[in-house]
Amino acid sequence: MTLTRKFSTALILLASIAMLIGCTRKHDADEFYVMATANKAIPYWQTAASGFIEAARQAGVKSEIVGPDNYDPNAEKDEFHKILAKKPTAIIVSAADPELMKPEIDAAIAQGIPVITIDTDSPNSNRLFFMGTNNYQAGTIAAEVAAKHLNGKGNVVVFTMPNQVNLEERMHGYKDVFEKNPGIKIVRVIDMKGDPRIVFDQTQAILDKKEPIDGFICLEAQGGPEVATVLKNNKVTGKVVVAFDTDDKTLDAVREGIIAATVAQKPYTMGYLGVKLADDYYHSKADIAKMASTKGPLSPLPAFVDTGATLVDKSNVDEIAKEMQSSQQKK
Regarding the domain delimited by 9-133+267-300, which CATH topology (the fold level of the hierarchy) does it fall under? Predict the structure, then answer.
């Protein structure tokens, strides 16, 4: 079963034009593009960085990745603030805390610096637009899998991080599906605080206390592998685990049947296309501050660019793993 999202015709044309322009345009020697994240050390963001760096290389411009090596929204804000002093050409940012990042994003836009949010949005800011997964729909698809494997009943625990827009949208999708399956109860929502050790410890504690938990829902990439490790270490079977993203440990757990399914996003695309589109807006010589404030039907900006997602289970995990391995070998 797969979830495939497509651009509208207008967005396909927009992306295609931006790519063509990016390949032929002459860039100034001092142009440089920045990608900011709240945790640049994890595989997900390393993949996004690869796409970002490749697009910058193709355009012949400098690129820089900023942010902490462990989950820290405040450190991300500080890095973003520092980078503004260097007057970057454009910024691609994952707003881990949308309200915390809003003043920084607005300051960049006010200076005429294009800002595109990726993966998680800061919807109240003046960013040009958000590009990433349709997280609500991804949440509903994952929830349908959970409901099927639970046979419509059971107690589940959710690992997430509050106030992060993408995770809240996934949670919304889960809740809507579970409302149609009243036998399924979310008995606890655990804030993992960006720390996989919390997932590991909390899962182990649930097993130690013999709590009647039938399923584990992981809305963030680092959760699934930790739950799978604990279950495997304790030789526990029969629990339903649904994860997000596709690091090697997650795919191995899907292959082994410990994780029922995971949702594969497209971080490489977010980084790659982010540069292409920001480059186009910058070189159009548009008034970025005015453009960002334009919300009407004649706005030159999309509201949202959906990069797509795919549900990965035993039926296609080997195919997905092979594709990812091939991509990594090319880098």
Answer: Rossmann fold (3.40.50)
